[in-house]
Amino acid sequence: MPGHAADPTGEVKGSTLERVRALILDASGIVLGDNKASMVRARLSKRLAATGHGCIEAYLDFVERADDGTERNNLVSAMTTNVTHFFREAHHFDQLRRIGLDARATGQKLNIWSAGCSSGQEPFSIAMTLADAGFPPRDVRILATDIDSHILALASRAIYPRREIQAIPPGHRAKSVLVEGEDARIAPVLRSMVDFRLTNLVGDWSFSTPFDVIFCRNVAIYFDPPTQAQLWSRMVGALRPGGWLFVGHSERLPDRLLTQVRYAGQTTYKKIKAEGGTAR
């Protein structure tokens, strides 16, 4: 039918666009709006070229029939936008430093999750902050997860263009980065603090040990409201009492969760402790 077909160089609209949206939503929880049609076309064209398909409909048939889900993951990776830099939203790292200093003083170990870690700048900023606070690397575990397997492979290399490290405060930079020509490599001791793992935030994830700190910033904004609400509820559930949750500048938790967490600063929440049944 006119307006319901697509090719690598044409428009993506009608039922074809709806089919792509449904695939991405089902696989990742990400919502592709009407304004994303041009982006979808451009990124689909790359997947068609990579898989040797001549039209989008045939490619989508292939994705839906694929047994191991590899190309479905490749499609999700193609549709995700990875925008990040070191020490983004610096006030979160100021608070993390205070958390690290308090934990070091009491001999507490820290379990931290960087959810939606993209190419690794966030978890390595976490590692730099704690190392600078004198927190022993052996006493911290930083889990860094993302849905994009390709970007995780880049993150695990811990190598960045030299120009990107300009966002790292000079005091951290000198101790944390090894410059090699036009590349900058994260110091091995910091790399050892981070465990990268492929995780779909709307999938069936669970962790045996609760987290002291969760960074989940500028991730939920890509989900529809019901998925956002479910994600925030699960994030709060994954925190230990007294644990901290850092969110993006345009994100906020639903009011119903404010019985479990309290607002603790700009885009910052702290899980409420209960003593003798009384929240504080």
Automatic annotation (TrEMBL):
<comment type="function">
    <text>Methylation of the membrane-bound methyl-accepting chemotaxis proteins (MCP) to form gamma-glutamyl methyl ester residues in MCP.</text>
</comment>
<dbReference type="Pfam" id="PF03705">
    <property type="entry name" value="CheR_N"/>
</dbReference>
<feature type="domain" description="CheR-type methyltransferase">
    <location>
        <begin position="17"/>
        <end position="274"/>
    </location>
</feature>
<protein>
    <recommendedName>
        <fullName>Chemotaxis protein methyltransferase</fullName>
        <ecNumber>2.1.1.80</ecNumber>
    </recommendedName>
</protein>
<dbReference type="InterPro" id="IPR050903">
    <property type="entry name" value="Bact_Chemotaxis_MeTrfase"/>
</dbReference>
<dbReference type="InterPro" id="IPR026024">
    <property type="entry name" value="Chemotaxis_MeTrfase_CheR"/>
</dbReference>
<dbReference type="InterPro" id="IPR036804">
    <property type="entry name" value="CheR_N_sf"/>
</dbReference>
<dbReference type="InterPro" id="IPR022642">
    <property type="entry name" value="CheR_C"/>
</dbReference>
<feature type="binding site">
    <location>
        <begin position="200"/>
        <end position="201"/>
    </location>
    <ligand>
        <name>S-adenosyl-L-methionine</name>
    </ligand>
</feature>
<dbReference type="GO" id="GO:0032259">
    <property type="term" value="P:methylation"/>
</dbReference>
<keyword id="KW-0949">S-adenosyl-L-methionine</keyword>
<dbReference type="Pfam" id="PF01739">
    <property type="entry name" value="CheR"/>
</dbReference>
<feature type="binding site">
    <location>
        <position position="146"/>
    </location>
    <ligand>
        <name>S-adenosyl-L-methionine</name>
    </ligand>
</feature>
<keyword id="KW-0808">Transferase</keyword>
<dbReference type="GO" id="GO:0008983">
    <property type="term" value="F:protein-glutamate O-methyltransferase activity"/>
</dbReference>
<feature type="binding site">
    <location>
        <position position="84"/>
    </location>
    <ligand>
        <name>S-adenosyl-L-methionine</name>
    </ligand>
</feature>
<feature type="binding site">
    <location>
        <begin position="217"/>
        <end position="218"/>
    </location>
    <ligand>
        <name>S-adenosyl-L-methionine</name>
    </ligand>
</feature>
<dbReference type="InterPro" id="IPR029063">
    <property type="entry name" value="SAM-dependent_MTases_sf"/>
</dbReference>
<dbReference type="InterPro" id="IPR022641">
    <property type="entry name" value="CheR_N"/>
</dbReference>
<keyword id="KW-0489">Methyltransferase</keyword>
<feature type="binding site">
    <location>
        <position position="88"/>
    </location>
    <ligand>
        <name>S-adenosyl-L-methionine</name>
    </ligand>
</feature>
<feature type="binding site">
    <location>
        <position position="122"/>
    </location>
    <ligand>
        <name>S-adenosyl-L-methionine</name>
    </ligand>
</feature>
<feature type="binding site">
    <location>
        <position position="82"/>
    </location>
    <ligand>
        <name>S-adenosyl-L-methionine</name>
    </ligand>
</feature>
<dbReference type="InterPro" id="IPR000780">
    <property type="entry name" value="CheR_MeTrfase"/>
</dbReference>
